[in-house]
């Protein structure tokens, strides 16, 4: 998915939000913002937006001298999600359709995203869960479950910290023995890394690998060889979140995207209403402009 002109002001807003999150120094805020404004003059609109996001957050880490400036926020998000885990697992097990509920909970968890405007609180997460459980999903859940039942090798590409706890509930229903979960290879906003997979207990139930990249999405051209091998060998790829949708919607493979549409540009490209909870095949977007 190519970025659009509407992505430019979003980059600027995200850069300033990120700078304020990791530093109280106005000089740091001005420095990163000035650099982003200069980059905006030469943005390649043929690239997916996470390419620029990667550049912004790499530079931010250099300026503040912190390897993972979002780590405190990610730890907080993991704690919030883990506190909800027992109740959510009980609700899934007692549901009329546990598979459907596990999928809905995983999609609802995509609200935990510091790359979009708005704060993430326990209340906002609970609201997202209840909304996702009560409203129709956009897409084709039946086709997703048919693909999941047929698959022998599933690659589950995670998105954010906190959200990865809810992913665990879906992976438990998919059958962990045939799932490989993938996290980011380095810090990228509040995206999940190996530390978050361990905290979520995901590494206790299934194999977890990292993709070798610090982009807030999945840029196959710079992912590590082991991740690319698993990507090519998978019968089914489950792609969580908007960043993965932006980078993989034009890539080959039996890919299903599970996310909440939190961005107008992405909702228009995905042909869904803003705020929708989505489960849809890559086939619909492979030839989109």
Fold topology:
Blueprint: H1 7-22, H2 26-40, H3 49-64, H4 71-94, H5 98-108, H6 122-134, E1 138-139, H7 141-150, E2 154-157, H8 163-174, E3 179-183, H9 194-199, H10 202-205, E4 207-210, H11 225-233, E5 236-240, H12 242-248, E6 255-260, H13 264-270, E7 277-281
Parallel strand pairs: 1-7, 2-3, 2-5, 3-4, 5-6
Antiparallel strand pairs: 6-7
How would you characterize this protein structure?
The chain has 289 residues and is an alpha/beta fold. The chain has two domains: 7-64; 71-284, Rossmann fold (3-Layer(aba) Sandwich). It has helices at 7-22, 26-40, 49-64, 71-94, 98-108, 122-134, 141-150, 163-174, 194-199, 202-205, 225-233, 242-248, 264-270; strands at residues 138-139, 154-157, 179-183, 207-210, 236-240, 255-260, 277-281. α4 (71-94) packs antiparallel against α5 (98-108) and α4 runs parallel beside α8. The longest helix is centred in the first third of the chain and has 24 residues, at 71-94.
